[in-house]
Amino acid sequence: MSKKNRRKFSPEFKAKVGLEALKGIEPIHSIAAKYEVHPVQVSQWKKELLERLPGVFATKAPPSISQAADHEARLYQKIGQLEVELDWLKKKSAQLNG
């Protein structure tokens, strides 16, 4: 008895097929034939896409790389400023005590 291996699809492929089904330009069976998957599978991916879509807008998008780099640069600048102030205070404290 031969055992058939299950096909595994990448998330990108599922999203592509689900989005095409969601657009509704072509019928599900046509999309399934084009991508060589079962029409029920296409319908499931479409349904999952519809269910998860509101979650995309529910959370705030992560900051872009340039925004994160700017924020990091400001933090390093602040650290440097605080270190200089601390060194100055230590020096003045030593002068007053000695």
Element pattern in H and E: HHHH
Structural class: mainly alpha
**pLDDT averaged residue by residue:** 90
Query: In whole angstroms, how far apart are the ends?
Result: 92 Å
What global shape is seen? Answer: rod-shaped
Number of helices: 4
Strand content: under 5%
Give a short account of the largest sheet: none
The total strand number stands at: 0
- Multimeric status of the protein: single chain
Structure write-up:
The structure is a single chain. This protein is mainly alpha-helical and about 100 residues long. The chain folds into two domains: about 10-60; about 60-98. The protein is about 75% helix and about 0% strand. The chain is built from four helices and no strands. Helix 1 crosses helix 3 (about 40-60). The radius of gyration is 29 Å and the shape is rod-shaped.
Keywords:
98 residues; 2 domains; 4 helices; 0% strand
